[in-house]
Specification:
Chain lengths: 237, 101
């Protein structure tokens, strides 16, 4: 069947597109597993967070809050604030999503992270659930297996490689962004505006990192859209 | 698993999944006004800018090391290399650098 073949090819594309994420998640996941063990979580607890939550930054912060004895409500609230940026990312992905059964979208939305969002959003053409399945499967596997390995084996990577691998996810973000920067002035203005705002919010301590990303993104996206419309109006009149 | 830990896992699962899932349900089959469509089209570029800076300056305690890594990634990506080459190339350059410094 043609549809099956198309879905298979989308799935493979997703796996390939997610390889960079899988590499980047390895050092982060190993460190998470190691930290969870030193925070005196059991193996099951460590894995449960990775399997059900699948949100790196939130899991790191939860560990440090658990260690200092923070209450359940505060931990959950902190997680919510940190991850509310994914609301904006899912809204942006929804614009590119193919018309498909709601359960498929509800299923793949579980795997929307900063990294899977970035890859899917920069993909040319529309987003099919099979692409998302491949993209998320490879990223999720890396995160979950890496968490377990970090817990059991500790961080077995040589320190030199571990330190260098810290660049991996940033290199991926840069690799996703640069092709657009070469062809679109608008992309340059958007990325630079949001980057500068995020630096200001972060270094001034005005906003926590979850809010800083979402507010920077919103201000840049809205103001540049408004500026574009004003300019277009000016040209018409 | 303790009740406390189970509550943490359950609560975190819920508050992480809801924001990821809700837009797909709320915006289902809806055509947003073109102004909002324009804003959402801008989001990926702005998000990437915010995800890269200032994080890339802080992933290593030595800022020169971090800057060299960022510069390497930009240069490799600028040549038109695909993402994996950019990722592996940046890791490779930093590994070689730390071996010889």
């Amino acid at each position: 069947m043609e549809t099956t073949a198309a879905a298979q090819s989308e799935f493979k594309d997703g796996l390939a597109a997610g390889t960079g994420i899988a590499i980047g998640y390895v050092p982060a996941a190993l460190t998470y597993g190691l930290l969870a063990k030193s925070a005196e979580l059991t193996f099951i607890e460590t894995m449960s967070l990775s399997i059900f939550v699948f949100a790196g930054a939130a899991q790191y912060i939860a560990l440090s809050l658990i260690t200092i004895g923070t209450g359940v409500f505060e931990i959950v609230l902190t997680t919510f604030i940190l991850n509310i940026r994914h609301f904006l990312m899912s809204a942006a992905l929804n614009e590119k999503a193919e018309e498909e059964a709601m359960w498929k979208k509800a299923a793949y939305s579980f795997g929307v992270t900063d990294e899977t969002f970035s890859v899917a959003a920069m993909k040319s053409g529309s987003i099919h659930s099979s692409f998302m399945a491949g993209l998320i499967l490879i990223s999720y596997s890396s995160w979950v297996l890496g968490s377990g390995l970090g817990f059991v084996a500790g961080n077995a990577m040589p320190p030199v490689v571990q330190e260098s691998m810290g660049i991996a996810l940033y290199a991926m973000f840069i690799g996703l962004l640069v092709p657009s920067l070469k062809t679109s002035l608008k992309a340059v203005i958007l990325a630079v505006t949001a980057a500068v705002l995020n630096c200001i919010f972060t270094y001034s301590g005005a906003l926590s990192s979850g809010w800083a990303i979402i507010i920077s993104t919103l201000i840049a996206s809205i103001s540049i859209e408004v500026a574009g419309q004003v300019r277009r109006k000016g040209e018409i009149e | 698993m303790s009740t406390t830990m189970a509550s943490i896992v359950l609560g975190m699962t819920f508050v992480t999944y809801i924001p990821r899932m809700l837009p797909f349900v709320l915006l289902r089959g809806k055509e947003l006004p073109s102004f909002w469509q324009g804003i959402l089209k801008n989001v990926p570029y702005a998000t990437l800018g915010a995800l890269i800076f200032p994080g890339v300056l802080n992933f290593h305690e030595n800022i020169s090391f971090a800057l060299i890594g960022a510069a390497a990634a930009f240069l490799i990506a600028f040549t038109g290399a695909n993402i994996i080459i950019t990722v592996l190339g940046s890791i490779g350059i930093l590994t070689v650098l730390s071996l010889f410094s």
